[in-house]
Specification:
This protein is mostly helical. The chain has five helices and no strands.
Length: 147
């Protein structure tokens, strides 16, 4: 049998630190970004309910958009300030600020569409793209602190 020095090559290297401050950072920012992704998904649910004729859904869709704008801006600013020296931190901050900008744009397009402008053809696909963009933020949070 040939066991000696080749045993090490079979084990994959650990990419992340299982303990310490980086683990807590990843966990905290994963929770924050998952929350943002869930709120973005809720927007799609409220939009579907609104299109199905539920009267309450329009109010929920609008209120959820306000929550989403405020929370993405806050998360982006906090990330830029607090994660600037953490590996992958500045990238997460930038992703969150870009997400906030796109959410703001999406809300403006939605308000214009609600007032009669023919922009639903932009509003709906941009909403779908936001779900994927939010998933990128979650993935970025999981990479925090990795070298």
């Amino acid at each position: 049998m040939n066991t000696g020095k080749y045993d090490v090559a079979v084990r994959p290297p650990r990419l992340t630190d299982a303990s310490g401050p980086n683990r807590n950072l990843r966990r905290s920012w994963s929770v924050i970004t998952t929350f943002l992704a869930a709120v973005i998904f809720a927007e799609a649910v409220f939009a579907g309910a609104m299109l199905s004729g539920y009267g309450w859904a329009r109010t929920a869709h609008l209120a959820n958009a306000g929550l989403l704008i405020a929370s993405t801006i806050a998360a982006g600013l906090v990330a830029v300030v607090t994660l600037r020296r953490i590996p992958h931190g500045p990238r997460l901050g930038l992703i969150l600020l870009l997400l906030a900008a796109v959410v703001f744009l999406q809300t403006a397009i939605g308000k214009s569409a609600a007032n009669g402008t023919n922009l639903m053809w932009v509003h709906v696909p941009l909403g779908v793209a936001l779900v994927g963009f939010a998933a990128q933020a979650v993935a970025g949070a999981r990479r925090l602190g990795e070298e």
